[in-house]
Amino acid sequence: MEILVYGIGGVGGYFGGKLAEAGLEVSMIARGEHLKAIRKHGLEVESINGDFKVRPKLATDDVSEVPEPDLVILGVKSWQVPAVAKELMSVIGENTLVLPLQNGANNMEKLLEVLPEKNVLAGLCFVVSFLEKPGKIKHIAFDPKITFGEIDNSRSTRIAKIKGIFDQAGITNTIPENIQLEIWKKFLFICTVSGIGGLTRVSIDKIRESEFLYDLMRKTAKEMKEVANAKGIPLTDKHIDMVFEIINSQPKGNTASTQRDIMQGKPSELENLNGYIVKEGEKYGIETPINRYIYECLKPMEAEARKSLE
To answer: Per UniProt, what is one GO molecular function of this protein (predicted)?
Structure first.
């Protein structure tokens, strides 16, 4: 199976590295000094589950050099998905499958605006990892896991084949009954902690120590549930409680990736997190004052960060 991992940051670097370590045909799209380091020394992954180093079949910044893939794993940020989808059109074949693993609730929809439905899967992942330096990914928390499936939740032969590939690579993975619900369950967590984390600029354990901020997170999550329900996603109060069990169990010092981007002055996924809830709330006539407050407070910083893309 020809596998293309587009984006070799914390997500793509870890999972792409595991696939390459298993001896699979893996091509990687990376940029700049990171690409140079991978070409020269290979990709190094320092992990709480064991360190390893791999050399991909191909490392490039030019999609046209890549063999037609059977599977494309997207390791880019959610705001980059539309542009990447357009770039991928030149190499996607009749049977190519594109699997998004980004934070956010509508990455699949973004792909469907560009690519044929037959080429698009739905997915998410759990991993706390990041690019430590060019050529090196550092995995610091959670047993990494991929959850994925067909858009219509059917148990297809091709989904079973991909599961087999992930199993071969030692990647914990699952095919749920309702992939859209699973995407929103993770979205519920990441959106609840990210924006407030970006505003306060402290770790999750410090946020939850504040009674006021803890209540603010609960209100953020409640608004998200209301929007999800309006869209036909069966999020419940029980799911909110489960998210807060995760929040309460976060080790000291943990931050969300979007929060780290905001704090470092990088373009972030703000528009795809709190911004998305605000816009969907307007669409369905649902008030989202807490998400709007977070979004509007962070939006000027996001505008400044995005000037780097111009």
So the answer is: 2-dehydropantoate 2-reductase activity
- pTM listed for this prediction: 0.94
Please indicate, yes or no, whether residues 114 and 128 belong to a single structural domain of this protein: yes
Task: Give the structural domain span for 285.
Answer: 181-309
Distance (Å) of CA 258 to CA 57, 228, 261, 267: 30, 21, 5, 9
Give the span between the Cα atoms of 35 and 212, in whole angstroms: 44
CATH of the domain at 238: 1.10.1040.10
CB-CB contact of 239 with 249 (8 Å): no
CATH of the domain at 56: 3.40.50.720
- Same domain for 168 and 300, yes or no, is no
Distance CA 122, CA 100 (A): 6
**Rounded-to-integer distance, Cα 308 and Cα 53, Å:** 32
**What whole-number distance in Å separates Cα of residue 85 and Cα of residue 87?**
5
Cβ contact 64:89 at 8 Å = no
